[in-house]
Structure formats: C-alpha cells, structure tokens
Amino acid sequence: MSAPRSSPNPTPTPSSYQSAPTRSVSVNGVDFVYRQLGPQEGVPLVLLHHLAAVLDNWDPRVIDGLAARRQVITFDNRGVGASHGSTPDTIEAMAHDAVLFIRALGSDQVDLLGLSMGGFIAQVVAAQEPRLVRKIILAGTGPAGGPGIDKVTALTVRDTLKGALTRQDPKQFLFFTDTEGGRRAGRAFLERLKERTHDRDRAISLSSFRAQLKAIHRWGLKEPEDLSRIHHPTLVANGESDRMVPSENTLDLAARLPQGELVPLYPDAGHGGIFQYHDEFVAKALEFLEA
Q1: Is the pTM value of this prediction over 0.85?
Q2: Which UniProt keyword terms apply here (predicted)?
Q3: Most CB atoms within 10 A, among 73, 122, 247, 262?
C-alpha cells in the first residue's frame, strides 16, 4: 500500500508509533517518507534502521518508550519502502542522504540511533558532519572492516531460505538466539510489528535489498577506520550472541571510540538484543541522552 504524502507539519506529534502519520519531505526533488512523534522540544533523535527494514520494522515498544520523553524521527532512506529514488550501494552515500534528510527537516543538531547497517551510517555521519550530531547510540553494529561483517550476505540468504522452508520470518533466526528464551522473544517481537494495521509502509524492493547487501559487504571489506575522530558521547549495545554482526564488534567499538560507553551485553540475546530487552534498553538510552 502506498504511504500517504504530506509536508512537514508543526502540529503536535502523536505519542504512539501505532498512530503516527506517515509524512514525506522532498530532498533534492526526491520524496523521503518519515514518521515523527514525541515532544517537539529538545534535540531530535533520528533512527537509522537495519538491512531490509522499513518504517514498520522498528519495535513499537522501543519507539514509544523513547518518544515518551524525546522527539523521535524514523525514516526510509532513498529507494527504501515508500521513499523514492534508487537505493545507494555504499554506506557513505546512504550517510550523505541521511544528512540531506535531516537538514530538509530543518534540524541543526540531532542525536542518532543506528541499528546494524544504521550503525554503519551513523558512524559516517558523525565523522563527516560532526557539528550535526550531539550524541550517538550504536546497536548491533560494528566498525568498518569488523570481523564477520562481510559474511552478512551469505548468512542473510541462508536464513531467508530457512524461513521460507519453515514458513517463519527470517528475523526469528537472524535477530534472536535459538534457545527457548530467544525463540519466545522473537515471536513476541514479530507480533508487536503487526500492531500497526493502517497506513503501513511498503516492503523493501529486491533491487534495494541487493544494493544494501552490496553496501554492507563493502563495509565489511574496508580497512579499519580511525574511530578516534568521532568524539561524540556514544552508547554501544548488543546481545551477547549476535550472529549477523558478531558481538566482538560491539566491544571493539566501545573500546576504540574516545567517549564510547558499553552497555553490558544482553544475555541470551542476538542481533535484536535491544528489542528483546526493550524496557532495559529504553531506560538506559534515555538516561544516556539526558545526561
């Protein structure tokens, strides 16, 4: 279903992601769709999402929890979901688009929450546009050239096929551990994603999915970046058993970022650790952002 188009609106934003309207803003002639909720004052928190994700893939418990005290903005990057244009096949180009989107909304400074691929994008934005960013939260992600990141394509394809054969959502395998607790958390998360029943976003196209996989693979093959140039306070979180972006990358990020703060790795959790432990994550994220 096509997402409705509207212009940036100064009217009060909703407090529930389930009812947040889908809006659009033109970025150099290309429409980017987004949702905005929470109080309007203060520094906005812009969310950068993971591989294949569209607006409806954010856990509503995380969004609503953060939006209780912060202005939260989610959006689809170029060519993703209902956003127009062609999806870039490099993280750097995605970061450039993210900066253009943020500025199109009129924001002079934002906080960033990047999950997985979104965490790669957040690192590039912070390094290239340091004045635009105040604080960063990196979840389930890693630095350029991090161990295992170049294997994301093969793992994703394998678990997508497994999902098709077992009639399950591949996120059950990719985001959660294969334990009783992990399977239960995965089922609960997937049910939460169904709570919004109207004005849902379009699924990602196959061409955009391929472009994202190429960008992630390139990120995984890059030479390690100098993270010392990212001086922003940064909160780093993940599950202890991340298969997509191995959890050792989380430890590496926290150690190499000058102001990196590590959230103790969530037990019996994987790539979707912040969704499995949404209450704990939201509390820690708000504490970090408001400090």
Answers
A1: yes
A2: Hydrolase
A3: 122
